[in-house]
């Protein structure tokens, strides 16, 4: 073991601050979140669709298990693993790791989305009952949750064979429950196949829009044509997923890839939480049709457009600045120096609030719920959860940036006092 990795490991073992409620969070979250997924799906299909319903809707065993769901899930992951591993598209390098090396990543996720689209069109042409995904939602979620547990156990065990410099600083506390939850290894791989990068954008994210399409087809089965509300939800979320895959390279600089280990939280988040809770609006609309006025629809489309514009422009501005600060699109922006040699933007989008990308993301989240009307809370689950997630994430990022940039970060905070919402927070 190299001396500096030894020092890093020691620092990690003794000084790591535990996140997500420490050991208690690491025990409760893996129990509560999977149950939440199943509860939300069940509620979205019940006539009342009430989150406050007591006793809660309990699905029967035969509603929870279907071997077809297991075959579909494994087939779906295998298809995307194959597409990922094919030598298609360019290869990009991630940020420099603690041992000074840079990992290579294939940039072909958008191709994965296009291939999935073509396959779905072919299946529809052949008369495949895509609407049956509505009935399969619960068994699919059960399989995805079970797979998340098994896969996280595998990742935890294999991390003991990884060299110390390959471990995430935050997931190496020595407490097995916490480390299993947060993730010990930073970039677990078999050969060039990077598990975290693969899971972050492909099976779950593309799976989410496929499930949405299934809900739309179910509506067609039930009512002859898709409703405007369903089409808006499908289009907005497809735009979000297509954008993520089109800008796949940018994921290489996100907190998840750079900082977080790959443990239960991210595995479950990628494979179960995203596909089965982010599209709840679509499954809600199947049983609870809504009528939208032209003005209401235009307002919702405008809100999504504004949110997307802020989200995309601010993310692109920072990515461009981090990749090449001399690029003409960012060279004239005002910046402040930090002791690390990196500079911080204090004008442009990053001079408006400290997380303009979160602001845009939240506006979009609201636009995804509004087509479901105001009669139920359930379709607003995503925007509520997401506000909590982003406020917590902002706080984590803030602490990491303060540790990284010290006084320069304080200066930035004085120059840009609001975190996410201008003049509010
Ligand atoms: N749909 C979903 O469930 C989720 C979506 N997201 C979205 O993912 C995207 C990425 O978010 P996330 O990874 O949390 O973080 P960000 O993309 O906001 O990155 C934060 C990092 O940016 C750098 N930075 C911060 N301020 C400045 C500045 N003024 N100038 C230059 N660099 C700065 C710092 O890193 P450094 O200085 O080291 O470069 C900081 O650690 C967001 O759009 C978010 O909304 C995130 C989580 C969940
Ligand atoms: C409650 C729970 C289990 C939380 C785990 C958090 C994860 C669900 C999210 C952490 C960061 C994420 C990102 C995206 C999806 C959700 C998770 C995995 C993301 C891929 C969505 C699309 C965006 O364009 C993005 C690429 C910027 C984004 C990256 C972060």
UniProtKB/TrEMBL annotation:
Compartments in which it is found: Endomembrane system; Endoplasmic reticulum membrane; Microsome membrane
Q: Which residues cross the membrane?
A: 20-44, 64-85, 105-124, 136-157, 225-242, 262-280, 292-311, 365-391
Kind of enzyme, top EC level? oxidoreductase
**Membrane topology annotation:** Multi-pass membrane protein
Which Gene3D superfamilies does this UniProt record tie to the protein? Answer: 1.20.120.1630
Q: Which reaction does it catalyse?
A: 4,4-dimethyl-5alpha-cholesta-8,24-dien-3beta-ol + NADP(+) = 4,4-dimethyl-5alpha-cholesta-8,14,24-trien-3beta-ol + NADPH + H(+); 5alpha-cholest-8,14-dien-3beta-ol + NADPH + H(+) = 5alpha-cholest-8-en-3beta-ol + NADP(+); 4,4-dimethyl-8,14-cholestadien-3beta-ol + NADPH + H(+) = 4,4-dimethyl-5alpha-cholest-8-en-3beta-ol + NADP(+)
Gene Ontology molecular function terms on file:
Delta14-sterol reductase activity
Major localisation: membrane
Q: What does this protein do?
A: Catalyzes the reduction of the C14-unsaturated bond of lanosterol, as part of the metabolic pathway leading to cholesterol biosynthesis.
Instruction: Supply one GO CC term from the record.
Output: nuclear inner membrane
Q: What protein name is recorded for this chain?
A: Delta(14)-sterol reductase TM7SF2
Question: Taxonomic lineage per UniProt?
Answer: Eukaryota, Metazoa, Chordata, Craniata, Vertebrata
